[in-house]
Amino acid sequence: MGVEYVSRVPRPPLDGLIDDLYYLEGAPPYARLTLPPSPSALLIVNLGAPFRIRAGIDIETAEYADGCVVTMPTRAFEFGYPPETRSVGVHFKPWGPAPFLPMPAAELCDRPVTVEQVWGRPAIAELRDRLATAAGPDEMLTLLEEELMRRLCETAGLGLVRHTSSVIAATSGAVAIGDLSVAAGVSSTHLAQRFKELIGVTPKRLARTYRFTATVFAIDPAGPIDWGDLAGGAGYFDQAHFGHEFRAFTGLTPTRYVEVRRRFLREHPGHALDGWPLPAD
């Protein structure tokens, strides 16, 4: 069995917080997948067997039965899947989870938590029951969207963080961080505090992540790669700086990354999950 993947953009105002809602069912391409950090956050409501997450090489693997919430990470995570997986989820913009969290995002940075820890056991149990008896993926995504709309609340500082993050995103991270606070009319300390509260990382870290992500998406693993041109075009000081960032974000050298990406393309051409996850086996 392959993978069934259905996604859609939610209606306003959720579309200002969320890139898409998705439904996923089937056999993962690999039992373990590595997800390098990206400028996004994730909510998974699990409807199948438990999955596992290792949030860094120095962290013990943890099991998640009801699902998980992952704010914007700063390190690569390893996901371990059962032979068959079934879930619905949310791909948030970096600031997206903030209106749905009972705690500052900084407390969850690189610390995935269960959905129960965020929304409580009765709420997630009831939501999972409703999702499990839904008629199909479309109805499931509607139920998830309705739950998010019901939980949406006002969040202090969200407008500031969202606008500043959008400027960072529009430049793929190539923006002077000091200029951002000046343009926003706040101190750099205040801006950094708001970012930590609502995203979990500083503006500088978000910019680094946007730059790295844009650079990776510029790589065509099917063709020859001029690493010097790629590094220079992305604004890295030199190839050594680029290589250091690559290892910090993925745990791999650039050439090893391409080898792994080519393996995924070769073994699972056209797969729904191709693009960012990497086989960890």
From TrEMBL:
Q: Which PROSITE patterns match?
A: HTH_ARAC_FAMILY_2
Keyword line: DNA-binding, Transcription, Transcription regulation
Q: Does the keyword DNA-binding apply?
A: yes
Q: Which residues form the HTH araC/xylS-type domain?
A: 138-260
Q: Which SMART domains match?
A: HTH_ARAC
A molecular function (GO) term: DNA-binding transcription factor activity
Q: Does the keyword Transcription regulation apply?
A: yes
Write the protein's name. Answer: AraC family transcriptional regulator
| Organism per entry | Nonomuraea terrae
